[in-house]
Amino acid sequence: MRKPVFLLIFLLVLARAHGQDLGGPGSLPIEINATGQTTYENGLATARDNVAIHFGDTDIYSDYAQYDSAKRTIYLKGHVRIYRGVSLYLGDEANYNLDNKAINADQMRSGSYPYLLTGHAVSSSSDEQYEIKNGSFTTHDSEKPDFHLNAKSVRIYPDDRVVLKYVTFYIGQVPIFWWPYLYQSLDRSFSYSIAPAYLSSWGPSL
């Protein structure tokens, strides 16, 4: 049987008693449910096994979660899935900030039409920007994409553009081409544009 953590009720009562507003942005409540043990002590709500967290337009699932009511952050571990709007984040461990919606993880996968991302040192901000170190970028929605780009740095501006640095283009597992810098617009007519360039630090490139 699912065991809801009655964190919301407790925090609201506590807030009224101390004259503080402990609700989320726009007074949104946070709901935490789990099938395993749940505790609340010293401002930390801990939930184990089949954890489900709902907050505004964000749904979070994991094996373990700990919510810090003072910092307003959630530490997640084990089969982490974060659904925020049309975006999906998958990983084994992550930290989520309720106030600015920032996600930080050592390794995570993310998907938002028309692209899919994987990488290390993943972070996102409140305006939905993503930054990934040593990342892989593709528009082929497959477990084994026919093509992808590997880059030391990938920055995504949803519905706008993607900026990649030190990029290798792969077909399958075969490296085909290399760019020091790649800028690509994100729209439904997604395509790559290649142009020659020359920089004193890199020499000739495309």
Task: Describe the model.
The longest helix is centred in the N-terminal third of the chain and has 12 residues, at 7-18. Helices cover 6% and strands 62% of the residues. The chain is mainly beta and 206 residues long. The chain starts with a strand and ends with a strand. The chain folds into two domains: 1-101, no CATH class; 102-192. Mean pLDDT is 78; it is low at 1-26. Strands 1, 2, 3, 4, 5, 6, 7, 8, 9, 10, 11, 12 and 13 form a 13-stranded antiparallel sheet that branches. It has one helix spanning 7-18; strands at residues 3-5, 30-34, 38-41, 44-55, 58-68, 73-84, 87-97, 103-112, 115-124, 130-138, 147-157, 161-171, 174-185, 197-199, 203-205. Strand 4 (44-55) and strand 5 form a beta hairpin.
Architecture blueprint of SSEs:
Layout lengths: L2 E3 L1 H12 L11 E5 L3 E4 L2 E12 L2 E11 L4 E12 L2 E11 L5 E10 L2 E10 L5 E9 L8 E11 L3 E11 L2 E12 L11 E3 L3 E3 L1
Antiparallel strand pairs: 1-2, 2-4, 3-4, 4-5, 5-6, 6-7, 7-8, 8-9, 9-10, 10-11, 11-12, 12-13, 14-15
Question: Radius of gyration over alpha carbons?
Answer: 20 Å
Biggest sheet overview: 13 strands, antiparallel
Query: How many domain units?
Result: 2
Structural class based on helices, strands and sheet pairing:
mainly beta
Order of helices and strands: EHEEEEEEEEEEEEEE
Beta-strand percentage range:
over 45%
Q: Please state the average pLDDT score.
A: 78
- In DSSP terms (H or I, runs of 4 or more residues), the helix count works out at 1
**Quick one: overall form?**
elongated
Head-to-tail CA distance between termini? 59 Å
Assembly type: single chain
Q: How helical, in percent, are the residues? A: under 10%
Contiguous low-pLDDT stretches (5 residues minimum) are 1-26
Number of strands: 15
